[in-house]
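Lecture 7 notes: from sequence to structure.

We start with a single chain of 90 residues. Read the sequence below before looking at the structure.
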Amino acid sequence: MAIRLRIEGRVQAVWYRGWTVDQAQARGLRGWVRNRPDGSVEALLIGSEDRVRDMVAACWQGPPAARVVNVVESAGEDDGTTGFRQRPTG
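Now the structure, written as tokens:
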């Protein structure tokens, strides 16, 4: 399963990307996370449905300093990424 997320709210400069990497790796997910120029964070989550869904639920909370107001899900595509890492803003 692959899902692309756009996380909106106060999610930049609050360690959201680093938190996402830690959380995704702990769940054995593949993919990536990056800041978007509009102030949101984008992520691609690849893995089993139960682990991806668990991560999506966690993204609504985020790290302590974050204030998530929306998590928009869309279909993702397994791009062959190995591991889970941060990407440059894009």
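Residues 29 and 47 are 5 Å apart (CA to CA). Keep this in mind for problem set 3.
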